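Collaborator request log, item 7. Partner lab (contact: R.S.) asked for a structural prediction of Transcriptional regulator to inform their binding assays.
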Amino acid sequence: MTRRRYQNGKQVIRRWDEVFKAVTAEPRRQLIISLSDAHPDETVPLPESAVNPNVPRDPAVLRQKLYHCHLPMLADHEFITWETEPLVAGRGPRFEEVAVVFEALQSNATDIPESLVFGCQRLEQERQERRSDSVAE
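Returned to partner:
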């Protein structure tokens, strides 16, 4: 029993490390959010779906970074699938493991420090909606 718990514990640690590594770059976060908004069987166009609307980037540079860095990393951990022509991404078998991080943040938007909300359209909107709901009650 102890050996099994140890092995399970190591696996859980590895998976959390993979999830947190996946969300350390803005294009990956934006892509995960875009895929969360899409139907589970749909793909999203790239590089458009990996752009923060508040901080637009050069699409050619972003496309290159997606192709050579971000997409392979997410695909290696099975968070996404992707195709090159056209450049699109879809949900991978482990997508929910990264999506849940953003779902938890959105659910708790009113508790997140303002310094982490202001400038993030999604969290700003969620915070506003939750505050409006609590005032209406």
